[in-house]
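pls design
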């Protein structure tokens, strides 16, 4: 269980540094199951290394993981991370993407970047999106642990291509999760070891922001229909503040066989008026 004290401490670290590490919160059996699932999916779909240097020419990235194997469904619902993400974004947040980051031996360091560089809004700003990097291997000095620039989420600009700043390596034990503000400057490290570094990136965004992966079109409807309702909502079968994302004034969750979803903001306003009228003597 998440105690309020622990949650508050994590949130304070996150706000100061732009990231926080939740040490070893995933049980070893779940880590092993996820690594096995990644290996199975990689083989089943005949996947290879990414094709761009940013994504990593010695890195296997499996996109759209929720559609590939049910084993990944629990990842976005991880209680501690989801409750922190809800506290930072709000409960109507969305899953932006769920992707694996398997760094092979020989993978070079990634360029310094932030994950919301394309969003045309001034910095600094409150978090728009959050990335939870799940360590499914120990993140060590030499296998490509993510580098971060603490406090850089508060800088007034995104990193320039030639910007040379000191970073720290977020080394952590397998089963740990690093949650960071996607405005934080960071990059994947170089993997100079002989082993693969297994990781997942579970990326959440505000409910009013476009998702990085188009999960409504990318996951077959019959697959989403089998998911837990909270995961369906996170995938975009939901409306933000009763207004954004509706289909003909209906919450899209009804497309998945649920009788009722959230009311639109307009229905809610009329209902409030009717109730106030009924209470008047
Ligand atoms: O692999 C990592 O450690 C980080 C990857 C990353 O930051 C990205 O691809 O945007």
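designed seq:
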């Amino acid at each position: 269980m998440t105690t309020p004290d622990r949650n508050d401490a994590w949130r304070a670290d996150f706000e100061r540094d732009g990231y926080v590490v939740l040490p070893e919160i995933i049980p070893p059996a779940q880590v092993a199951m996820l690594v096995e699932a990644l290996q199975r999916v990689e083989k089943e779909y005949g996947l290879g290394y990414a094709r761009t240097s940013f994504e990593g020419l010695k890195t296997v990235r499996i996109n759209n993981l929720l559609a590939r194997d049910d084993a990944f469904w629990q990842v976005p619902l991880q209680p501690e991370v989801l409750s922190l993400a809800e506290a930072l974004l709000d409960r109507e947040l969305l899953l932006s993407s769920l992707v694996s980051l398997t760094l092979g031996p020989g993978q070079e360091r990634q360029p310094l970047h932030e994950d919301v560089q394309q969003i045309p809004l001034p910095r600094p700003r409150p978090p728009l999106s959050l990335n939870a990097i799940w360590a499914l291997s120990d993140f060590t000095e030499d296998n490509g642990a993510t580098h971060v620039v603490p406090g850089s989420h508060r800088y007034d600009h995104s990193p320039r291509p030639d910007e040379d700043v000191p970073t720290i390596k977020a080394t952590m034990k397998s089963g740990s999760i690093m949650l960071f503000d996607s405005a934080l400057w960071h990059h994947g490290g170089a993997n100079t070891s002989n082993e693969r570094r297994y990781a997942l990136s579970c990326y959440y965004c505000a409910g009013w922001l476009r998702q990085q992966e188009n999960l409504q079109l990318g996951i077959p409807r019959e697959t989403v229909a089998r998911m837990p309702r909270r995961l369906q909502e996170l995938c975009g079968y939901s409306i933000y503040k009763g207004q954004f994302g509706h289909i003909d004034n209906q919450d899209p969750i009804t497309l998945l066989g649920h009788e009722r979803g959230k009311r639109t903001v307009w229905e809610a306003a009329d209902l409030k008026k009717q109730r106030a009228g009924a209470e008047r003597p």
